[in-house]
């Protein structure tokens, strides 16, 4: 079945450590996105990519980094510079052109202790 | 710029009650509009969409009409069920190069039997 897979579902890390969240899609979509979700704040865009080896900052990119070496994969690294990393992280993908929706993974809940 | 505003929650209803969740938007150009639903601990699922003015999206008894004159896309359901309890997000695709979906803050719906 085609879809987006995020792993792991739950992640615990100590303060000051970098951590990488995985996102893989087999929908042959060109565009991929990372959103952060906090209670009462909806979804905020961290980074997005529309083509391999290229990506753009979203509204809250500080303290995060991404790479897009393959069309299928768009990992997100939460660095120690992110002041409040505990959140629910959602990856999505879409085709590039047209009036299209985005398809979402099941999310990763990151807790920093 | 582009933005989405949806009514604050939570919305609490009894089973079989009528549901309306308001959503208004600002956009340049000709956006597409979406409603997504999120169940606890999961990612977002597309509920319905409309790609041009006066289009009506519908799915699982939910409906929303793209009203350009009032810049609105209100979600309605005639008779809610307990299983409809979830968080609902209104979203906009600006359909402009180099942009991502923009989401409202979400509205929590709780339906009791």
Q: Can you describe this structure?
A:
Chain A is mostly beta strands. Chain A has strands spanning 4-7, 10-13, 19-25, 31-38, 42-51, 54-57, 64-66, 76-78, 87-94, 103-104, 108-112. Chain A is globular. Chain A starts with a strand and ends with a strand. With 113 residues, chain B is mostly beta strands. In chain B, 0% of the residues lie in helices and 50% in strands. Chain B is built from no helices and twelve strands. Chain B has strands spanning 3-6, 11-14, 19-21, 23-26, 32-38, 44-50, 56-59, 62-65, 75-77, 86-93, 102-103, 107-112. In chain B, the strands form three sheets. In chain B, strands 2, 5, 6, 10, 11 and 12 form a six-stranded mixed beta sheet that branches. In chain B, strands 3-9-8-7 form a four-stranded antiparallel beta sheet, with no helix packed on it. In chain B, a hairpin with a 5-residue loop joins β5 (32-38) and β6 (44-50). The chains are: A mainly beta (113), B mainly beta (113). Chain A binds chain B through residues 4, 6, 31, 33, 35, 40-43, 45, 48, 50, 56, 58, 90, 92, 94, 98-107, 109, and chain B through 32, 34, 36, 41-46, 49, 51-52, 89, 93, 95, 98, 100-106.
């Amino acid at each position: 079945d085609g879809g987006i897979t995020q792993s792991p579902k739950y992640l615990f890390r100590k303060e000051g450590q970098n951590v990488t969240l995985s996102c893989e899609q087999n929908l042959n979509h060109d565009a991929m996105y990372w959103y952060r979700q906090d209670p009462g704040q909806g979804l905020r865009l961290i980074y997005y990519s529309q083509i391999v080896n290229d990506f753009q900052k979203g509204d809250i990119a500080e303290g995060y980094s991404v790479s897009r070496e393959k069309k299928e994969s768009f990992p997100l690294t939460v660095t120690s510079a992110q002041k409040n990393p505990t959140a629910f992280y959602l990856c999505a993908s879409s085709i590039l052109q047209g009036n299209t929706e985005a398809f979402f993974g099941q999310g990763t809940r990151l807790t920093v202790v | 710029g582009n933005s989405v505003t949806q009514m604050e929650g939570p919305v609490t209803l009894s089973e079989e009650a009528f549901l309306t969740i308001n959503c208004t938007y600002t956009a340049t150009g000709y956006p597409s509009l979406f409603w997504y639903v999120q169940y606890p601990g999961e990612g977002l699922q597309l509920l319905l969409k409309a790609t041009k003015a006066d289009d009506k999206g519908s799915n699982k008894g939910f409906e929303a009409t793209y009203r350009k004159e009032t810049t609105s896309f209100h979600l309605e359901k005639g008779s809610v069920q307990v299983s409809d309890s979830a968080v609902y997000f209104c979203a906009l695709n600006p359909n402009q190069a180099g942009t991502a979906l923009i989401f409202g803050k979400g509205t929590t719906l709780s339906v009791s039997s």
